[in-house]
Amino acid sequence: MLVLSRKKNESIMIGDHIEIKVLAVDGDQVKLGIVAPKTVKVHRSEVFEAIQEQNREALSATPNFLEQLKKK
Amino acid sequence: MNIETKFLGEVEIMEEDIYSFKNGLLGFPDLMSFVVLPLDAELPLVLLQSTELSEIGFVVAFPFAFKKDYSFDLGEEDKEDLKIEHEDDVLAYTIVTLQEKFEDSTMNLLAPIVLNVKHKLGKQVVLQDNIKYPLRQSIGALEGSAK
Questions:
Q1: Which residues contact B31 (CB under 8 A, 6 or more apart)?
Q2: Facing residues of B118 across strands?
Q3: Paired residues of B53 in beta bridges
Q4: Coil, strand or helix: which one is B117?
Q5: Mean pLDDT in chain B?
Q6: What pLDDT does A61 receive?
Q7: Please, are residues A30 and A24 in contact by the beta-carbon 8 Å criterion?
């Protein structure tokens, strides 16, 4: 992993088109500004983790669920 | 060819019905080959079944049967990955997390399964707005709820 130190209002470039700027630092919270082309999706990584977890949970459906549904 | 499925036993499928997911599904990056199989004609649910692992089968919903106004825009990257040329070639499903009581089940509106029916490509697309598109939308609370 590449590790860079940045101060408030400093930024880094990823490739030619993506800029990440440190807007504010408050205790253990960092506020980042991200400038990226529309084609690049930006998500908090928790979102991806939550979706992965949800996919796994969806798989736990029991094989007899169809019978259960039909009973209704 | 015949495959073993999670809920339907052994099922015969056609090679040309197989969808390629080049990125797999989130959490399952190695599973790239799925088919869509009918479950029950009375329910707006189908099975997204891995052709590689029988135990990997997702119950997915026609989202519009539960939420009529569900719609989203695909990003350029998604369109490229799915080689989408016409809107008519696109089909969307949402993964259902079943609970003991069907009304308590939820569906994932945040990361729908988008298929290109013409080129047989698929992708789990992550939408940008998790307020408008909840990860766990209760099925029972939805309008037009299919009974």
A1: B21, B24, B25, B50, B52, B53, B56
A2: none
A3: none
A4: coil
A5: 91
A6: 73
A7: yes
* Per-residue pLDDT tens digits for A29-48: 999 999 998 878 888 899 99
The verdict on a CB contact (< 8 Å) between A47 and B128 is no
Among B136, B126, B105, B94, smallest CA distance to A42 is for: B126
Locus of tokens 């495959």: B3
Q: What pLDDT does residue A63 have?
A: 61
Whole-angstrom distance, CA of residue A65 vs CA of residue A38: 41
- Phi (first) and psi of residue B30, to 5 degrees: -90, -10
Q: Which residues of A touch B97 (CB under 8 A)?
A: 54, 57-58, 61
Q: Where are the domains of chain B?
A: 2-138
Give the class (CATH, top level) of B2-138.
Answer: mainly beta
Whole-structure pTM value: 0.86
CB-based burial label for B9 (10 Å; 0-12, 13-18, 19+): exposed
The secondary element (H helix, E strand) that includes residue B46 is: strand B45-50
Q: Which of B97, B102, B108 lies nearest to residue A72, judging by beta carbons? A: B102
How far does Cα B50 stand from its chain's mean position?
12
Q: What is the pLDDT of residue B147?
A: 45
CA distance B111 to B126: 4
Whether residue B61 contacts residue B45, with contact meaning beta carbons closer than 8 Å, is answered with yes
ipTM computed for the complex: 0.89
Q: Which parts of chain B have pLDDT scores under 50? A: 145-147
B107 interfaces chain A, CB cutoff of 8 Å: no
